[in-house]
């Protein structure tokens, strides 16, 4: 193993820079050259590669986003485009590619591996929607960003005796809503995995009012529906002033937490170790607090499971 390349793909996530730093410096420590690929797979097929050294990743561990920048590349679904990518990597003398991203990015890595490119994937997504790993890089930071917003929203919600519906990201995964709903003391948590009844929600809010609750916090995962429409419905049915807040892309930004910085560093170092062992088509994850590597096909084939026990706890302590 003489030279590796690294790219970030798909949605950005806090901690990606920490992972880049760990991959680059671990590789250099072992005498491996490193090339950065700008703008993900799009940059790869356009030949946007450059040499990285230790100074390339100085003072980035605390920064959100990704210094390599990222982009989505629909063209990469075409085999002829992927063949072009393999030729570009070969032209630069690259022996292996490290990909940081979510399931779509991993699919790209898997397809490249079938063309003979050695690949390793790191789970970089705030959604925490990759089943083979307990946590993804960026998830913890996103949770803390949401909690900070919730705490502020509660202040004004209490002052005005309102219902506050907060919509968070996560695509079809409700982990952000579930974790922040519990940590934020929400009265109701709505996730794609469990769904909800508008009538039941209104009943919970009205029963809470009868018990003396002066405000209600509802966490809504984006994969279920729109906060604005739900707020309008709740206000019409309950007669209680209801406001919607869509947190949006602030959840992707910001300086990564200590948890994400350390997790990303461990995973980045593990990626290089796996390549040095001669493995390919692997993804890095964390299970039971241990950094693991797994076959990419097996990892992507695992059905995502929802934490029913945590959801049950949320319901029990919200009443």
Automatic annotation (TrEMBL):
Stretch forming the signal peptide: none
GO cellular component labels: 6-phosphofructokinase complex
Top-level taxon in the UniProt lineage: Bacteria
SUPFAM superfamilies linked: Phosphofructokinase
Residue positions binding Mg(2+): 103
HAMAP family (alphabetical): Phosphofructokinase_I_B1
Annotated function: Catalyzes the phosphorylation of D-fructose 6-phosphate to fructose 1,6-bisphosphate by ATP, the first committing step of glycolysis.
Full protein name: ATP-dependent 6-phosphofructokinase
């Amino acid at each position: 193993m003489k030279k590796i390349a690294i790219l970030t793909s798909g949605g950005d996530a806090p901690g990606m820079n920490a992972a880049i730093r760990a991959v680059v410096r671990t590789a250099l420590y072992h005498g491996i050259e490193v090339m950065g690929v700008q703008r993900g797979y799009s940059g790869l097929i356009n030949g946007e590669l450059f040499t990285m050294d230790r100074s390339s990743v100085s003072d980035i561990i605390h920064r959100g986003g990704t210094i390599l920048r990222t982009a989505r590349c629909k063209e990469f679904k075409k085999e002829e485009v992927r063949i072009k990518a393999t030729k570009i990597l070969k032209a630069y003398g690259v022996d292996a590619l490290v990909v940081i991203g979510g399931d779509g990015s991993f699919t790209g890595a898997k397809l490249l591996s079938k063309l003979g490119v050695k690949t390793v994937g790191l789970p970089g997504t705030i959604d925490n929607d990759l089943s083979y790993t307990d946590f993804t890089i960026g998830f913890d930071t996103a949770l803390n960003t949401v909690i900070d917003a919730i705490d502020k929203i509660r202040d004004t919600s209490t002052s005005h005796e309102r219902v506050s519906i907060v919509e968070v990201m996560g695509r079809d995964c409700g982990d952000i809503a579930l974790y922040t709903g519990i940590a934020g003391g929400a009265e109701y948590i709505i996730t794609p995995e469990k769904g909800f009844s508008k009538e039941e929600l209104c009943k919970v809010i009205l029963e809470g009012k009868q018990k003396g609750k002066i405000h209600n916090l509802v966490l809504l995962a984006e994969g279920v529906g729109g906060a604005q429409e739900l707020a309008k419905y709740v206000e019409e049915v309950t007669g209680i002033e209801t406001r919607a807040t869509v947190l949006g892309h602030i959840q992707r930004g910001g300086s990564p937490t200590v948890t994400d910085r350390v997790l990303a560093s461990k995973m980045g170092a593990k990626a290089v170790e796996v390549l040095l062992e001669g493995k390919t088509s692997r993804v890095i994850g964390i299970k039971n607090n241990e950094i693991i590597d797994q076959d990419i096909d097996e990892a992507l084939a695992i059905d995502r499971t929802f934490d029913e026990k945590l959801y049950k706890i949320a319901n029990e302590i919200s009443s």
